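New to this. Help decode both lines:
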Amino acid sequence: MSTPIDLLITRGVVLTLDPQRRIFADGAVAVQDGRILAVGQHADLEAQYAPRRTIDARGGVVQPGFIDCHVHLSQHLGRGTIPDLWPESREHEQWLPYWTQITQEEARSSALLACMEMVRNGTTCFCDNGGRFAGELNAEVIEEVGLRGILSEVCWDQPPHPSVAVGDTEACLRRLERLARAFPKRPEARVWAAVSMAGMGMCSDRLLVEGKALADELSAFMDMHQSFGPEDVARYREHANGKSAVAHLAGLDVLGPNLQLVHMVHTFPDEIPLLATSGTSVVHCPAASARMGMGVSRTGRVSELMRAGVNLALGSDSGNYSDFFDVGRQLYLTAVLHREARGEQPCISAEQVLEMATRNGARALGVEQWTGSLEPGKQADLVIHDYGRPEWRPGLDPVTSLVYSAQSTGVDTVIVSGRIILEDGRFPHLDEERLYYQIDQTARALHGRMGWIPQHRWPVL
């Protein structure tokens, strides 16, 4: 007798990303109570289970959902407003008025837009580095859209401008602890909190040390920006009496498996063994660096980090830097940027970048036992691609097709904890047209108060 189950996904090319990296050319995934029950050959699972619902993948790739390890939900209404001729040093001319003028309702619209975009592009889990308002605001949005998301609030005791201060060191630590205790990490959680900090010299040594101790105490993880531009790298060396950022963090005993450093655009050779031996993860955001010309393909040493055994994951950063929340495009950029800069073929392979977008991301966020691969017992977080698209043809190698031609273009169905949150390219539980209209109106109101006028270089009639 067949065993009753909730869901069976059949006739897909299943990329498991399991320890053996098995691919089932005619595969299936069985789901019960939000978890993966079995992964295997279509014929075997179809004979074994009696599903209440069946999804026929029709030859499309079935993969673990992408994991975006670094986003800023609060900045998505500012997407496309920073002129692309500005140097990175002028970013605050847009960011400061945006940050000081945004309301809670506008921040909610920004988070909603960001979450919907991530789902459409195949992301099932992400980490937000923090917004201006309490984390509960973003928690509501994450639950509404159906994603799995990690919350934080902006934390810095040495802010870049007085108008964005959130308090002294004690106030920052209270802020971090409140959120972490309000949203603890649990296997079934859709939303939980990290100990997130701005980093890059905007946090005192005491805040870093006590924040890391808090993460250790609560079995959470800590994330922070580091070494994005030449100016912040130079300031850090001055602060650290000539040491590199990673060497200074090692001296503070902050490095470790529950720390992820975001960007590391300017990585020095002596920092690589410190990252590798400590188990610290690095989140690579190629689009953010390429968009602003920060130099990660020249100075990031991403391939060297990988060869040294550093856990590398992927991030999209923010709407006013990379301009999109799409891990599919991030993995393509990672695969091609570094070989172009180095003249090496390959520098980072298609298989390696797919691991960065799934397994490695789960490890960086401390949830590799829950998600990041299609294995029995893990949460049913997966994506089904539509094979009926030209980008997927002829589909002779599903991994190279995914990385180099298809990316997220054919994302058809997205499932988180066994719940279908995108089906046939549509959100079954959201009124997209109404939400997009509201988001547009909200963004125009915000930019109107800012006095921000788009700087068109071509005449707009």
The chain has a mean pLDDT of 95.
